[in-house]
Amino acid sequence: MTHRIVIVGGGAGGLELATRLGKTLGKRGSANITLVDTNLTHIWKPLLHEVAAGSLNTSEDELNYVAQAKWNHFQFQLGRMSGLDRATKQIQLAATLDEDGRELLPARTLGYDTLVIAVGSNTNDFGTLGAAQNCLFLDTRKQAERFHQQLLNHYLRAHAGDNANQKISVAIVGAGATGVELAAELHHAAHELAAYGLDRIKPQDMHITLIEAGPRVLPALPERISVPVHKTLEKLGVTVMTNAAVSEVTAESLKTSNGEVIEASLKVWAAGIRAPAFLKDIDGLETNRINQLLVRPTLQTTLDDDIFAFGDCAACPQPGSDRNVPPRAQAAHQQASLLAKGLKARLEGKPLPTYAYRDYGSLVSLSSFSAVGNLMGNLTGSVMLEGWLARMFYVSLYRMHQMALYGTFRTLMLMLGSRIGRGTEPRLKLH
């Protein structure tokens, strides 16, 4: 019987792994590769802040799993993993419902010989009172599109009303990369919406407040990056609040632990991560306090050699450190590359390679206004980048992701099509 490799989660890491394994093991018939995801299409998660602001039209940048599977010799199953039976080597998939609540696909099981879990992470609201009920999140395409629609609705209501110079207030909790990039992208969107005639809300009347519990923005990155980013945000008119932990969220405002009240008509929670709740101690596997599966440097779970996990849903130790690998896109990409080689070696009876995180630097986009970051390498050390050059490197990260999925020629065609389309489409999604 052909070896069955099941990959759960079609994010950047899981989809890249399925594509790589399909092109090698799947194409040769050495293994049956199956990718499982709750959606039919993939969008690169670091782009969701652009979807929320309307700068990115998802219908143009999404990837269809069914087509990708056909082109790259793996299979795709629509479904959401809900359970695991390690004794029989089966995962349970919950029933899939359509938009009207009718059952589209029944609950079912899927057998595996090797299981790879790459389900990513969700935003962690830390149990903050009212956050789940009154904040929007940016974990999925649907959530990002919901935010964009609510933002656009404010502008459309103002455009149809009689009162001039109306205002809109947006509060973003969490000044990590997502929060910072969303704040800049919203400022850009305010100018674009006014340019298209929705100018009852002037750009200066979109009040954006970025709230961070820690002492500075971008707390996970070096201070030499966070300082210029903070200054740029303030130049754009964004109110940046640090050392301000949110203690409660209501329908109209947010309250901080020191008693400040921030009024906001749109509230986004972008602070912290945790793995999906269904992973917590799933069939006896070890997990940590944020539901991440504990894995060894081989990316095998600590209690089951046949189950691997990587990306944001895995707690992988860093050699020579008491910290785990950070939940970043570059880590998921590195781990997918390692597993593509490792699973092939495993089928051949060879030892598994071990993972050691390599930090190649960080880049943060401030929409069309600027970009800031640093690149790290063995020869160059750490090089600080800012402005146009940093922006070009930032864009190249997405192109590298596309090349891993589509190959060089198709990626070049996508770039050409995007360039041609700029002259025939609005610069902002207006629906």
3D architecture notes:
α7 links the parallel β13 (168-173) and β14. The model has no long low-confidence stretch (mean pLDDT 90). The chain has helices spanning 12-28, 48-53, 58-61, 65-71, 131-134, 141-160, 177-195, 223-235, 329-347, 388-406, 408-421, and strands at 3-8, 31-37, 41-42, 63-64, 75-78, 80-85, 90-94, 96-97, 103-105, 108-111, 114-117, 122-123, 168-173, 206-211, 239-241, 246-249, 253-256, 261-263, 266-269, 273-274, 293-294, 300-301, 304-309, 314-315, 361-366, 370-377, 381-386. The protein folds into three domains: 3-121 and 275-347, 3-Layer(bba) Sandwich (FAD/NAD(P)-binding domain), CATH 3.50.50; 131-269, FAD/NAD(P)-binding domain (3-Layer(bba) Sandwich), CATH 3.50.50.60; 361-421, no CATH class. It is of the alpha/beta class.
Put the structure in a nutshell:
With 431 residues, this protein is of the alpha/beta class.
Please describe the topology of this protein.
Elements: E1 3-8, H1 12-28, E2 31-37, E3 41-42, H2 48-53, H3 58-61, E4 63-64, H4 65-71, E5 75-78, E6 80-85, E7 90-94, E8 96-97, E9 103-105, E10 108-111, E11 114-117, E12 122-123, H5 131-134, H6 141-160, E13 168-173, H7 177-195, E14 206-211, H8 223-235, E15 239-241, E16 246-249, E17 253-256, E18 261-263, E19 266-269, E20 273-274, E21 293-294, E22 300-301, E23 304-309, E24 314-315, H9 329-347, E25 361-366, E26 370-377, E27 381-386, H10 388-406, H11 408-421
Parallel strand pairs: 1-2, 1-11, 2-5, 11-23, 13-14, 13-19, 14-15, 21-24
Antiparallel strand pairs: 3-4, 6-7, 7-10, 8-9, 12-20, 16-17, 17-18, 22-23, 25-26, 26-27
Helix pairs in contact: 1-9, 10-11
